[in-house]
Amino acid sequence: MPRLFTGLTLPLDLADELSEFAMPLAGARWIEPEDMHLTLRFAGDIDNPTADEFHAALSSIDEPAFTLTLSGFGAFGGQQPRSLWAGVAGNPWLDALARANERAARSAGLKPEKHAFKPHVTLARLKGTRPESVARVLEQLGGFTSRPFQVESFVLFSSRPKVGGGPYVVEDTFALRGADYAGHWAG
User: Fold this and answer.
1) 8 A C-beta contact, residue 87 and residue 71
2) Active-site residue, 37 included
3) Residue 120 bears catalytic tag
4) Please, are residues 161 and 3 in contact by the beta-carbon 8 Å criterion?
């Protein structure tokens, strides 16, 4: 039973830049640059027939390539922080791609996503970290805006069943309209 999700990979230099923000923080497990990604749709532990249907539905997505910029830092979990993340500047094309991934999941029989799409790149997973410590780290991190980068494809990832976390395996890559496999912007 594979554990699947869709997402965007990051340019390696950007992932390396984000990894440089890691600092001592009790209870933090910082994400390795090669495992940084932006999740579009989590499918979870699903059976092989459902995985095949999900893959087929993803193959039919026809959305345009676009430019994306990361912007800002934040944390999920409030008084029980679970993760630190880098945010994403508002982007209607990213939102459309996420909706297309949601439609693909629903057509494969997956339940609707419980949470609204909040695009982000997880930088650290937190366990038992005090909210005051997270607030101090976010203050130290300050503002951040990445260089814009081209999004020419999205990816179907797998992770260890029932566990999650990296290392992730790229199961398939789906080109977006206006992109070519050589990685050159065509539109």
Assistant:
1) yes
2) yes
3) yes
4) yes
Tens-digit pLDDT profile for residues 60-86: 999 999 999 999 999 999 999 999 999
pLDDT in tens, 124-157: 999 999 999 999 999 999 889 999 999 999 999 9
CA gap 18, 169 in Å, rounded: 21
Catalytic residue among 55, 115, 120, 184: 120
Residue type, 41: R
Is the link from the previous residue into 161 a cis peptide, with omega within 30 of 0? no
Q: What is the pLDDT of residues 23-47, one digit of tens each?
A: 999 999 999 999 999 999 999 999 9
pTM for this prediction: 0.90
Q: Which residue out of 37, 55, 115, 184 is catalytically annotated? A: 37
CATH classification for the domain delimited by 3-175, as one of 3.40.920.10, 3.30.470.20, 3.90.1140.10, 3.30.1380.20? 3.90.1140.10
